[in-house]
Write a structure and sequence with these properties.
Layout lengths: L6 H17 L6 E12 L3 E5 L2 E2 L2 E2 L2 E6 L4 E11 L6 E11 L5 E7 L2 E7 L2 E16 L13 E18 L10 E17 L4 E14 L2 E3 L6 E3 L2 E15 L1
Antiparallel strand pairs: 1-6, 1-16, 2-5, 3-4, 5-8, 6-7, 7-10, 8-9, 10-11, 11-12, 12-13, 13-16, 14-15
Length: about 240
Amino acid sequence: MHFTTGPRLKSVLAAFCFLLFAMSTPVSAEWFADLYAGAAHTPRSDVTLVINTPSGRADHTFHDLKWNNSEVLGARAGYWFGAVPWYGIGLDAFHFNANLPAQTISTTIGSATAPATLQAIDFSITVIALDVVRLRYPFLISTEYPQGRLRPYVTAGPALFKTRVTNRGNGELSTRSVNDSSWGYKVGAGLSWQLTGAAAIFGEYRFTHVRADPVLDGTITGARVPMPFDLDTHHLLAGVSFSF
């Protein structure tokens, strides 16, 4: 997994860390760290290549494109507040791919629609998400497990998507990789089971959304070719959690 942090991202992370320390107290601290893996599925959707010509725009819109499924790898850290133990916050970083395989689909160019073939394009996506809302509910409460041994939870918050796009076979586009940074969001729900007071396993479903707008290079005219698209992805995850 690889990602870079720009000035805006560093500011967000610094503000988030300040919030964590400002709101914590030594006697009520319950920090946690998670490692997880799973699978990501992106449903079919449209992608547009914005083509500017001397006589005007001739956008290519590819309809109902199929995205390949992908593995997901990630890590998360956060904090549950002692005064309100059902509420917490977290910082989540994960990576997945959403590659487009070569496929023949309905394509609109200008006002005409006909079948056309789009060659493979790869999308490598790293996400840094802030769980500004993280809620849990305790079941099977005991002396050993005062916050419950079984804990359903939900999460939600903004997310920064770092997308790297690489054209693999479309002759009118350069094969040079390009990067895009766009804000979206992440929501999720899961269920954790405490193995001990400090270790748990969990399963989670999450949904992510981003409106990305990478800009590729055309090989025929050398013009820039924006590629705006919405990426809606479903994730199924399983992992381990440690509290301290």
